[in-house]
Write a structure and sequence with these properties.
Layout (H helix, E strand, L loop, with lengths): L10 E3 L21 E3 L20 E3 L19 E3 L7 E2 L10 E3 L7 E2 L10 E3 L17
Parallel strand pairs: 1-2, 2-3, 3-4, 4-6, 5-7, 6-8
Length: about 140
């Protein structure tokens, strides 16, 4: 699937479109995209986001088949990340996403989450319906 538009949108919404691969979307054509919504598709790997790395601030991969959190390090301006309803067991590799304010991992298979200490802008963290047995250590938020 190749995205071809006559304009360069800021919001791209491809919900329930049977997308199985992010690279197949041809994101290099979208130089201004800020919100990328790929909910309810068949994506099993996070990859191919480099073309939108500097502009995307909201990435929604809710309800796909993603098993690992990786290949996000280039998304330096990301503020919101939704990986709810996937098959993730372990959350790591997000400590460089220092602009995150909203992080959603509801209804996965997460037993362990680590390296959140650097996410000082984080205000919303959703971990409901996972397999976490011990509450992760969080420092108190500044008042």
């Amino acid at each position: 699937m190749l995205i071809v538009h006559l304009y360069n949108p800021k919001d791209v919404d491809l919900v329930h479109m049977r997308v199985s691969s992010i690279p197949s979307l041809g994101l290099s054509r979208l130089t201004h995209v800020q919100k990328l919504c790929l909910r309810q598709n068949q994506i099993n790997r996070i990859e191919g986001l480099e073309p939108v790395a500097n502009t995307v601030i909201d990435l929604d991969l809710y309800d796909n088949a993603i098993g690992h959190v990786n290949n996000l390090e280039s998304l330096v301006n990301l503020q919101s990340l939704d990986l709810s309803y996937n098959a993730i067991k372990h959350v790591k590799n997000i400590d460089n996403l220092i602009n995150l304010t909203d992080l959603y991992f509801a209804s996965n298979k997460i037993a362990r989450i680590e390296n959140l200490e650097k996410l000082t802008k984080l205000r919303n963290l959703e971990l409901g319906a996972n397999k976490i047995r011990v509450r992760p250590f969080f420092s108190p938020l500044d008042e």
